[in-house]
Write a structure and sequence with these properties.
Radius of gyration: 30 Å
Strand content: 5-15%
Number of helices: 26
Helix content: 40-55%
Distance between the termini: 126 Å
């Protein structure tokens, strides 16, 4: 009997060994989780999710056996798909103003730029972001990131530049003009050839250009996202063209009423001014919802618009936290623009107006809920610098407005992925989908504040490990408590296990942020930390920040501040780009016109200075605006000396002489300008004013 027992035992061991060897071995298992089914808005208890490489390979009952290299015990905690923010701008990550973002993403800045995406989004559970407008010079780099995702960073999908029609004004660096419908079609083909699958049409894209580009985009299956505003193209018109994705909840109002009429009427009704700050602009957008609610005709139109959008399967992004910030209705302040750096909105309202704004915000959130209930696909689009944290607070606002938590989680996941046509890989927890997942420490179904709770983040099938940035937290401490307390805090937490090692590029980014906001003392304090920790390194910031910061102070007639800001930059960032026109201008303001001329002569052939005709001309016109005609004339004369074959420099010099009452010299220069450019009708008109006819 013992012999048979031994044989039987051996046979069973052999069978058990064979079964174990034949089982699939997984890379990661999330054992015993409460799985959120974002498609059906249900929670499936006691499940185990098995991951192979970056893909969900199996979903089994928690009691079933499996083999995996790594196991996370879910403890029946909530597991959701990774969140998606459908309206971001990488430019907003850089500094307090997008205008300070670099013209190019240089190779040495790749890790910093992608690291900012992680810091701003992935650390909060946003595993995918859509960039809704960037400089075209960035596209090759960011498209490569789109095509080669990494577990260390959020998935990135880009739209290229924000497309606008030709306008007679200087465009922000991420706005791309098309001259006419055919030029618009050409731009679509250009983006399609590069491999872009999304495009952004901005609010001043005229209807003929808009229509042609939508038609062309259909040929390449490019998803169009449009910010319809200013009564140029309405939502209804875009719907009829086949567009389904609309940006920002506040853009509903111009599609049901005429801003040319009702903007003024709304301002008069609430006694507010014409948006003197970006935050008051956001508040204006909130006020419009009270204006609509108090007018049954407009409210009926809005409800009808929701129904038509739902019938067409349209989606609508939010930016609700920015609007809530302007109304003081969120615990986390955000803005469309962070210049100046602040924690509270720049609004100047009476107590009565604040109460009216409270009512307007309630009306807006009621309409968010109504839009959702009528079938408009709401998706999160934070459109602000700290998008990850802002998104979580938007979700709180949705729930506070009465939207059920299961719907809130669907908005954060499937709605965005479906709208962006990314749901074949993301947005639901299903076999074959990418393993971008969030395991909540605390259940948001039990308390909506748990949306803000700690999460285990799985990105690309890998457990995401993230230590906080001491540089970026230092920035926040300095903003909140001042530079002296910031320095004390830094010494206290440096080398703490909670933080990653001090990163020189992140310190540089903080310095750039403070410089972009004009906070020289704060920048100097962080620069001191950089020098202490990296004594053999030289910090250089983007020269655009230094140049634009100086010009901004000059435009405000803050001459001493401008000179101090410029000299701080020159003394501390010797390798940053510098421009000849600004160097000459600063010398002229500080030491007089003769010294400015000497400075020009000494550096005009120095290749370390950027020198172009347009900036020099711009300096001349700035001096005219500042009521400094002699200095302006000198700058224009130097520009003529440098670019003697340019008709435009003579035209500008003629204008400067004319403004100074030196008409003979004005006539000479206008004539020279027209000789070089016979089509200069402006110059001919100026000569006519001076009593000279041109034949």
């Amino acid at each position: 009997m013992k012999k048979y027992a031994v044989l039987l035992t051996g046979f069973l061991c052999l069978v058990t060994s064979f079964i174990s060897c034949s089982q699939t071995k997984y890379d990661l298992a999330l054992k015993n989780v409460a799985l959120f089914d974002s498609k059906n808005k249900k929670v499936l208890e006691n499940k185990t999710v098995l991951i192979k490489a970056d893909t969900i390979a199996a979903i089994i009952d928690a009691s079933a056996d499996f083999v995996s290299d790594e196991i996370v015990d879910g403890g029946n905690r909530l597991l959701t798909p990774g969140f998606i923010d459908t309206h971001t701008h990488l430019m907003q990550n850089y500094t307090s103003t997008g205008e300070s973002a670099p013209e190019y993403i240089e190779e040495y800045n790749y890790d910093l730029t992608r690291g900012l995406m992680t810091q701003m989004y992935l650390a909060y559970g946003i595993t995918t972001i859509i960039d809704m407008g960037q400089p075209e010079e960035w596209i090759d780099v960011t498209l490569n990131w789109q095509q080669n995702p990494s577990p260390e960073y959020p998935n990135l999908f880009i739209c290229g530049g924000s497309i606008v029609s030709d306008e007679n004004r200087r465009q922000p660096q991420h706005h791309i003009e098309v001259m006419n419908p055919e030029d618009g079609r050409k731009k679509v083909r250009e983006y399609a050839k590069k491999g872009l699958k999304h495009m952004k049409f901005y609010r001043k894209l005229r209807k003929p250009d808009f229509e042609a580009m939508v038609d062309e985009a259909k040929k390449f299956d490019i998803t169009i996202n449009t910010h319809t505003d200013n009564n140029v193209v309405t939502i209804d018109e875009a719907l009829e063209m086949g567009v389904q994705n609309f940006e920002h909840f506040f853009t509903l109002s111009p599609s049901i009423l005429n801003y040319d009429v009702h903007w003024k009427a709304m301002n008069e009704k609430y006694g507010i001014q014409m948006s003197p700050s970006i935050d008051e602009f956001a508040a204006h957008m909130v006020f419009f919802f009270s204006y609509i609610k108090e007018n049954p005709e407009f409210e009926d139109k809005l409800m009808g618009l929701f129904e038509r959008m739902a019938a067409k399967g349209a989606s609508l992004s939010t930016a609700i936290n920015v609007l809530a910030s302007s109304a003081g209705k969120t615990d986390f302040f955000t803005s469309f623009e962070y210049f100046p750096i602040r924690r509270t909105p720049m609004v100047d309202y009476s107590e009565e107006q604040k109460k009216q704004l409270d009512d307007a915000f309630e009306a807006m959130m009621l309409y968010v809920k109504k839009a959702h209930e009528k079938g408009v696909k709401i998706r999160v689009g934070s459109d602000c610098r700290y998008g990850g944290k802002a998104m979580l607070h938007e979700l709180l606002l949705f729930h506070n407005a009465g939207i059920p938590m299961e719907d809130v989680l669907q908005i954060a996941t499937l709605n965005g992925y479906e709208s962006m046509k990314l749901d074949q890989d993301y947005g639901t927890i299903e076999v074959g989908k990418k393993a971008d997942l969030l395991l909540f420490d605390k259940n948001p179904f039990e308390n909506n504040k748990n949306l803000l709770s700690k999460k285990t983040i799985i990105k690309g099938g890998k457990l995401f490990s993230h230590k906080k940035s001491i540089a970026y937290d230092l920035q926040d401490v300095i903003i909140d408590e001042g530079k002296d307390k910031g320095l004390v805090w830094f010494e206290k937490v440096n080398n703490s296990n909670d933080y990653a090692s001090v990163n020189k590029d992140e310190l540089k980014q903080v310095v750039s942020t403070f410089l972009g906001d004009g906070k020289v003392g704060e920048a100097k304090a962080v620069l001191g930390i950089f020098k202490e920790n990296f004594p053999n390194e030289i910090m250089n910031v983007d020269g655009t920040i230094l140049t634009n910061g100086t010009y901004a102070r000059l435009r405000n007639k803050e001459y001493k501040e401008a000179i101090a800001f410029y000299e701080f930059g020159q003394a501390n960032f010797s390798k940053s780009e510098k421009t000849l026109p600004l160097a000459v201008l600063i010398t002229m303001l500080k030491d007089g016109i003769p010294e400015g001329k000497k400075r020009f002569d000494s550096i005009k052939d120095d290749k370390s200075y950027i020198f172009n005709e347009d900036e020099m001309n711009g300096v001349g016109y700035l001096l005219l605006q500042l009521k400094k005609p002699l200095e302006a004339i000198t700058i224009f004369e130097l520009n003529v000396e440098a670019f003697p074959d340019s008709w435009n420099v003579y035209d500008s010099l003629g204008e400067a002489y004319m403004s100074a009452g030196q008409n003979t010299l004005a006539i000479q220069n206008y004539k020279k300008s027209i000789e070089l450019n016979p089509d200069n009708e402006y110059g001919k008109g100026q000569l006519k004013k001076l009593g000279v006819s041109w034949q």
